[in-house]
Design goal:
Blueprint lengths: L2 H10 L3 H18 L13 H8 L25
């Protein structure tokens, strides 16, 4: 069985909710082979692209202080 046949077989068994993600990945791989052609603007962005684009939505003070708060003093329950 060729790699193409295995890929088709794997895609046919995917739940419908994952087909869009696989299609977006395949389109991204194809676009990497053709860097001069623009991608379809209606294409579903991959996870990494969405993550990076959403970073700008955080305010500058988000996690400004990156220290763990002190734990409250508790009775030692094992003594």
């Amino acid at each position: 069985m060729t790699a193409r046949e295995k890929l088709i077989q794997a895609i046919q068994t995917l739940p419908e909710s994952q087909v869009d993600r696989v299609l977006a990945y395949v389109n991204q791989v194809r676009a990497d082979d053709r860097p001069t052609q623009e991608q379809d603007s209606q294409e579903t962005p991959c996870f990494d692209e969405t993550w990076w684009n959403n970073l700008s939505h955080f305010s500058p003070d988000f996690l400004e202080v990156r220290e763990q708060p002190q734990l409250p003093v508790r009775e030692d329950m094992f003594e």
